[in-house]
């Protein structure tokens, strides 16, 4: 019997998951409401560069495409902090050799579509909008060029983003829980162009942050030598998007808060007016599955804000976990989807909480004296006891520890550092026996 599956959405997760399915012998039809970006070209102006880390690379390795993607990725070894006066300080992300990788969202999506399309079992249907999902029969109503048709398969995967049509069909199921929360902040994409001969005008191997309390600017490198910048700013208030309507207001705002960046963004005013101001939303739902027929993956089931760099990574990890469970349960979809739903939702909720927590860290705390000391002590403890203490950021970014366990451990580490930072004269002398004693006592308690 022919194995068939439908994937709704040809974004990052949908394109990757179609590769996993095809490798298992499934004939995969992918329906995407947008036009084929290979013909239309990727439209920038509202994206945030991706930060590929360990969880994302594992999924690409399982799909056999990691090396192809890594060719255009740029290692970022840490954060480069930009003070208001233009001074910079570097904060490593982990141990020497550990890095996250800047990847173009559009470039990665194009690469995944091309790789998937080479597989004889994968068939893309662009400009096809899913208007209805029949849960019981496992069929879709699809409209293209004004003509509506029906598509069916024994399996349907919703990978169609935060405002998923597949999830919308599940939301009409009794006892379906759904929650969406918008931040008071929005974001706008800007660009630092490449210098002469494609040179990088600021440090290439770093994620640049201009933290300013309730708002911030970030910049991630591109292989072309440019940097994709993102301004995160409240929609309303004294410093907000509502205040930046005129050329003079935009110019004055950047001169005041981001003077060193302003000198690098020649098209600031043009980009500011032309690129949209986008929203930031967290979406949670339960369940992600309907019987053994429908499953949500990626943003359609757990959209998160971008401040831990784990949106794509967590979506790719969905693919890894689901594929591993298929092997564990001998491709019994009833058992697989039930187990996936039970174990993956707590982890998705945890990374949503962690991303919101990291937003405060990035904009408010990266210049805080206690926060910086905590980072130094955490790195020291990790070097001293690599198997006994792993900083929260490293757990999330450089390991496969489930997000829910990392979050729980992070909360325990908060208790540890509350005690360490209370030690007398800790800022003057922190590599001490007293710190070790507090750590060992905390370790016994936990």
CATH superfamily of the domain at 4-72 and 103-180 and 283-358: FAD/NAD(P)-binding domain
Count of beta strands: 19
Number of H- or I-type helical stretches:
16
Structural class: alpha/beta
| Biggest β-sheet: strands ordered side by side in the sheet | 6-5-14-15-16-13-17
Strand content: 15-25%
CATH overall fold name of the domain at 4-72 and 103-180 and 283-358: FAD/NAD(P)-binding domain
Radius of gyration computed on alpha carbons:
23 Å
Q: What's the helical proportion of residues?
A: 40-55%
Shape: globular
Main beta sheet: strand number and arrangement? 7 strands, mixed
Q: What is the CATH class of the domain at 4-72 and 103-180 and 283-358?
A: Alpha Beta
CATH hierarchy: architecture of the domain at 4-72 and 103-180 and 283-358: 3-Layer(bba) Sandwich
The CA-CA distance between the termini, in Å, is: 52 Å
